[in-house]
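**Entry details**
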Amino acid sequence: MDHHATTEEHAKSGVYHRYHIHTVEAPDRERWPSRFNVHVRKAGLAKLLIKEVFHYGPQNKDVILSRPCVYGVFGGPVGGFAPREEKCVGCLRCTTEFPDFVRIEHNPARRALGDSYFAFGYVDAISYEAASGLIPVKGAGYRGGFGGEGWDGMWTDMSEIVRPTRDGIHGREFISTVVDIGYTPNFLEFDERGRSAGSPPRTFSIPLPMLFDAPPASVRDAALPRALASAATELGNLAFLPVAALAGLGEEKLAVAPLVAPGDDLAAIDYQPRLIAMDGWDAKLHQELSDKFPHALIALRTAFDDPDLLAYFTAGVRVFHLTANYHGRGEQGDFVLDLIRAAHKRFVDEGIRQEVTLLGSGGIIAAEHVPKAIICGLDAVVLDTPLLVALQANFNDECLDRSTSEFQLPRLDAAWGAQRLQNLMASWRDQLLEILGAMGLREVRRLRGEMGRAMFMKTLEADAFAGIEGYHG
């Protein structure tokens, strides 16, 4: 489905439209530190120019004033005497041609962006994705590690050659990224007269397995809720926002899943949302929401390692928004990858995994983390800090959780912010399509809990090296 048209419009027209995210270039509003520092020894440059004047003659100005950079670093009025560092991509052509007086170095101010978990490499990638809507591809190939801690210790199975679904983003075959949120029973029940008995399915679908989380308390810019809600509207997705943020919204609030805490004024929710989230379990609030919004699904926001997940299921919760901190750690220090697997397994072991929807957030900061989280057991992810980075937020020291972390946003324009978020989702969706195509899957729903598509570095190392002297698994 095209995100600009409603389902009813499509039904009337009788024309099928592929889901598409409209991208428009949305450059940075605030100048961030350049990726590289360009050092030019002015005496050396002046000496070269004088030498070329004598060699080529003053009539050959085009040759003398040619710039050794196709990206425009030396394309300013005075060329290399005042390099435009923001245009440097680190190709090193200038240092190769003129090693005596040109030197390129990484900018330490750029490397200081983010924090110890959301490292500058992730900031760089998201900055590019949000500005352009494109996939960041480097001609030099992948230069990172092929293993490590956290998400880097998980590899995915790519068997493109022997499976049929390829080129998902190029149009030859359609790959669906639609996911369902809600409750479906394990089996249907009928009474003696053949009528449906038991609890009927209650679900709705969204076109992306990526939702927007509520911003942290430290971010108070009134344009941020509008940007999140507007982007969610265009994408056909949902944004979690506190009840207090609804006051400044218009029709875009229909794409908002209110995040409700005990004591909130429910009268502020003056529409029928598809999904409402409770910020922590409260039996009285759950009943109030069920009575006031009978057509809405009620989700529970709680920690991944909450020991009472099954008790909440018994109490009627069918949609869970499970959370880790911004560094992907649970209350006991476990990483979100392991937390997802453990929560998924708890419901599988009870035989009720098909009856619940598991959403998860915390520590998911790159496009590759989305399919990995779904493989581990989530139905969809809820994005937090990547949205802030897409809007050029600066981290104040280490940012760990929603209640205490401090971010500084530039002065926001809601339309610019919404477009940046759309661009980010377009890039991440294309990368999700690539991995689904490489796995031969035609829809993301089939990826959930598909552990046969994953390999774990620690497991493989243990199988290969166990019993060998010096190996400590």
About this structure: The radius of gyration is 26 Å. The longest strand covers residues 297-303.
